[in-house]
Specification:
This protein is of the alpha/beta class and 367 residues long. Helices cover 28% and strands 24% of the residues. It is built from eleven helices and 16 strands. The chain has a nine-stranded mixed sheet, sandwiched between helices. It has a five-stranded mixed sheet with strand order 2-1-3-4-5, sandwiched between helices. It has a two-stranded antiparallel sheet with strand order 11-12. Helix 4 links the parallel strand 4 and strand 5. Helix 3 runs parallel beside helix 4.
Length: 367
Amino acid sequence: MKTDRDYMQLALNLAASALGKTNPNPVVGAVLVKNGVIVGSGLHRKAGEPHAEVHAFNMAGEHAEGATLYVTLEPCSHYGKTPPCANLVVKSKVARVVVATRDPNPEVAGRGIRLIEEAGIKVEVGVLEEEALKLNERFIHNMLTSRPFVLSKFAMTLDGKIATQNGHSQWITGEDARSHVHEIRNDVDAILVGIGTVLADNPKLTTRLQKGEGKNPIRVILDSNLRVPLESNIANTNDAKTIIVTSTIYEDTDKVATLKDQGVSFIFVQKTELGLDLEQMLGELYKQGITDILVEGGGEVNASFLRAGLIDKYLVYIAPKVLGGKNSKTPFLGQDPQSMEEAVELQFDSFKQFGQDLFVVAYPIKG
């Protein structure tokens, strides 16, 4: 006999299938169960389209009355592009609602649940809540900080090297790991590198999937001294939109005007002692609808995000190779710490193998 956890897991699986497609909205799954039989199910497929509960109720029809609704996120209680789902739940006359987690938006959290309870429907909250929170970590972060969720991705050898002393890095990992990177790119709104990567590799920063072309994320380039070549691949905006982040001192220059004519966009921020103001940049990117960003920069770019405390998740590929060399490049450069107490503590979340390479996911431990 299936339990609440079993049905909620089904709802979570439905929600997960839309990861990367619903931004800026959360991913949500819903399952309707009556007398041990699933009579309806649905997911939020894309921003602006009907929510998960709508699809589930449309499938169930009259069988929704007296059923139990399992939903991965508190039903919404406000009018947006679609009507409030909480009202739909009340109208459906379900007997019970099981919610994985409340809406993280402090302005609306709990309102949908209260509306349903006031209609005399029993509501239970917290079934597989940890899994639901992780599934919508990007959305929750957006709601609480008004900034994009920052993922730091890098590949390194077993001894922690990302390139030789002259910058040669192709290829550290095997083909399976590199294919997985393109799957991640397909799920994010933007990808960020520093000007050093552009000058060294002239990358396109596009998505190449084995099945289909995939979605090309917006390309964000950190270029404090506006060194980007006019003929570089990222300056060709036919493949993907490009945003160059640079100092305010270049705002009215001829080079900026030329790049704008090529379709490149700009964000001008202040310079700090540590370089460009990354918090200001993230705030501006969020205003432009970017909800998550994959940082694929070199050691200096990674270090600037690390020092600013702006990395929300680490995606690390470890190859079974030892490079050696005191001048070989490492994932995080910057100033040398003087003691281990300065280390950023992480919590390992998961491990997976792609070919011969190990993939590690970790989160910073925030006090």
